[in-house]
Amino acid sequence: MPRASSSGIPNPAASQQTKFRVNPKRSYSERMSETRAEIRRIMKEALRAITQDPSASMRWPSYWKDVVCKYRVVVEGWPHDDVPFRNLSDVPNLQKLEILLRGWQAGEIYFRRLSEAEFTVLSAARAAHIDQGDQGQSRET
After folding, report:
1. What is the pLDDT of residues 65-98, one digit of tens each?
2. First-to-last CA distance in the chain?
C-alpha cells in the first residue's frame, strides 16, 4: 500500500519514488560522456589561452588547416601508442579517455606554439605524405 503523505492522505507516487536513489551511480556511458566533455573543455581553454583567440576551438576533421596553419600550434605529448590522435567521440573506451584527461590535467599533453621553421618542416612532411597517398594523421599532429 502506498505511503501516506504528512497530511495522512495516501500518496500513490510514493511507491515509485522509493525505486530511485538520491545519488545514483553513473553509468559507463555517462562517465565516458563526462570525461570527453572535460577533455574538450580543457583543450578549448588551452587553445584559447595560447592563441589569445576567445573563439578558438579544436576542429578534429580540419585540425591541420584550422588549428596548425591558422594558429601555428600543435598538440604535444599525445600518447599515440595508447590513443590514436582522433576525435574524442571515436575514442573507444573510458580507460583511453582517462589517459588523455590525466595527461591534459598534468600538463603532459598541451598545445605548443610552432616557430615558422618548424611549421615549414611540418608542412613539407605533410605534403610529402599527401603526395604519397597517405592522408592519415602524422605522429607530429
Report:
1. 999 999 999 999 999 999 999 999 999 899 999 9
2. 63
